Amino acid sequence: MRAIWAYWGYLAAAALIVAWGRGAATGVILVLSLAVFAYAAFQTPVWCGAVNRGGGTYCRRNASGILMGCSLRQHRWQKIKLIVLRSKAGDVSRALFPTAKEKFGAFIALGGLASAAAAAVLPVFTG
Which domain range does residue 103 map to? Predict the structure, then answer.
């Protein structure tokens, strides 16, 4: 049961797709969109990906979410610092998305944000 709970965000993403397809209420779509984004950003099981002390390798310990690091104190906020502070784009992409699993998580997170924005703006234009 614990393994299923670790991947609840993918079920929320599927429910979001169904909700958009069936024309669900704006509130339902907005809540599902934000849940999918929060899951991908802060809870999906991924590798840490923070830069190790040598500078040439990346941490491969387990972490939660594409924006968070592993349990090492130095890695916890290093990925968020890479986004906020000026850095080379290649360093940011290698640290945040080292494998296909992280790239898929980022795709889901961006999809959730785009869906939330569309759910909030669409009723303004359609009345």
Answer: 2-126
